[in-house]
Each structure stands twice: as structure tokens, then as C-alpha cells.
Design brief:
Blueprint (H helix, E strand, L loop, with lengths): L13 H18 L11 H12 L3 E2 L2 H14 L4 H4 L6 E5 L7 E3 L11 E9 L5 E9 L2 E9 L15 E5 L2
Antiparallel strand pairs: 1-2, 2-3, 3-6, 4-5, 4-7, 5-6
Helix pairs in contact: 1-2
Length: about 170
């Protein structure tokens, strides 16, 4: 019997589904929820992981743009070269755990160089969770925005630019 293919040119590749399933497992692991059924993972967690996995490449959202611009604008010294990159930045991926961390496309970064943190900041997510933020660059080009909850919260949303505090560059 010949194998049946369930894929077409409009369907995400099989690896996308595998990453989404793995993201759901990671969410359950991080949140301390376990079990064999799908009910062990909150629906909104998996929905966020799926949406993170299937919506790339894409331009920066207004919220992402505003947050990065505020981080760069607050310091002014030594970070001006990155401001011009925001308009052309393309998001190539994000974290599978459901956090709002993003990576920029490989075309906009220099491969073969080590990513370095450009700016560190603290903020508060819309849920009231304290978060750390790291703006990364590679070879002089922005390469990612990392947002991590300090208290290990399950899922957070991107903090608003007006919640930024304690901004500092990495020397």
C-alpha cells in the first residue's frame, strides 16, 4: 500500500508540529504539571506555543518595537547604531515555552560570531511579574530579545516600555 502524504504546500512542515508538541511538554515541565493527558497543559499555554511556532518570519510587533526602542533610547551611549536596524528587523523565531523572547532573522545577523548582551533591564510584565530583559547582538546587528521571569512564572506577556527600569549596558 503506498504511503499517504497529508502535507501540502500550505501546511507547516512536520518539524513544526514536533516542535509544538515539544513546546507543550516543556510548558508542563516548567510549570510542574505532569501527566499523560493533554489536560495537564493549560490550553492557553499550548495555544501560545503553537502561535509562537507558526507565525514566523514576521516583522516586529508595535509592542516589541516600542520596548526595544525605549531600551536603546534610554541609554543613548554606544547603542545608536542599533536604532536604525529596528525598521528592517524580522523576527525569525521565539521561545517554545510561551515567553515573549524573540530571535531576529539570520540574514540580519553575522553568523559565526558569538552573540553578546547589549542592554540589560528589569521590568514588570502586564501580569505584574518581575522580569529581566536582555537585548542581544551578533556582529554589530541585533540578534534577539530575551524576556525571562525572575520568579519562574509559567507564561508572561511582553512588558510595556514604560515599566523598564535599571537599564544598563554590558561592558
Amino acid at each position: 500500500m503506498p504511503a499517504t502524504s497529508y502535507s501540502n504546500e500550505n501546511s507547516p512542515p512536520l518539524m513544526t508540529y514536533i516542535r509544538v508538541i515539544a513546546a507543550g511538554r516543556q510548558i508542563r515541565k516548567r510549570s510542574g504539571r505532569s501527566g499523560s493527558g493533554g489536560d495537564a497543559c493549560r490550553t492557553e499555554d499550548l495555544t501560545m506555543a503553537i502561535s509562537n511556532e507558526l507565525s514566523y518570519p514576521r516583522p516586529l510587533t508595535a509592542e516589541e518595537h516600542d520596548l526595544i526602542e525605549a531600551m536603546l533610547g534610554a541609554l543613548r551611549s554606544g547603542v545608536g547604531r542599533y536604532i536604525g536596524q529596528l525598521e528592517e528587523a524580522e523576527v525569525a523565531g521565539g521561545c517554545g515555552c510561551g515567553c515573549p523572547s524573540i530571535n531576529f532573522s539570520a540574514e540580519s545577523t553575522v553568523t559565526g560570531t558569538k552573540p553578546i548582551p547589549v542592554i540589560l533591564a528589569d521590568a514588570e510584565s502586564p501580569e505584574g511579574v518581575p522580569v529581566g530583559i536582555i537585548l542581544w547582538a551578533r556582529g554589530g546587528c541585533l540578534s534577539g530579545l530575551e524576556v525571562h521571569p525572575w520568579d519562574g512564572a509559567d507564561v508572561i506577556r511582553l512588558p510595556h516600555a514604560d515599566s523598564l527600569r535599571n537599564l544598563r549596558t554590558v561592558d
